[in-house]
Amino acid sequence: MIWHVAFAVDNLEEGMEQFGSALHLDWLPIKNFSGESVLADGTPYLLKTRLTFATAGPCALELFERVPGTPNEPAQGTAFHHMGYWTSDLSKERDRLEECGWFHQGGPVTPDSRAAFFASSLGIFFEACNSTIPRPGLDKYYPGGPTGVRQPDQLL
User: Fold this and answer.
1) What is the pLDDT of residue 146?
2) Phi and psi based region of residue 58 (left: phi greater than 0; alpha: psi -120 to 50; beta: remaining)
3) Residue 127 is part of a domain; what is its CATH number?
4) Does residue 55 contact residue 1 with C-beta atoms inside 8 Å?
């Protein structure tokens, strides 16, 4: 189930103003994100960015500041970055996507991973998001609605 579409921007406040005024959007508070991640080959890197989500739904709109040299860089010539969707098992999802021609681009693929990125020759990413890991403030987008994080056996 697709739950968000994300765009990488150079300046978060400017992106919020442009998207917000055009689409009549309000935004959740800006989050400063800093965390360790890994490239597909296992090389670790520190990801530091700022991000926010629009408060409208049913599909969330995410804006984040691009991070050159990491998977958080959009395809050349566009701000579109990825579509995020729910899965309860990132390892199985990695195997399934590889069979479909998508390759693991970054993010750990372990049971406690929040998400992992996958790419194809299209030049865009899919973000497989772990539905068993809580994302405070975004519960309304989880499978089954705002009742909270669903365990694998509860997913559709």
Assistant:
1) 58
2) alpha
3) 3.10.180.10
4) no
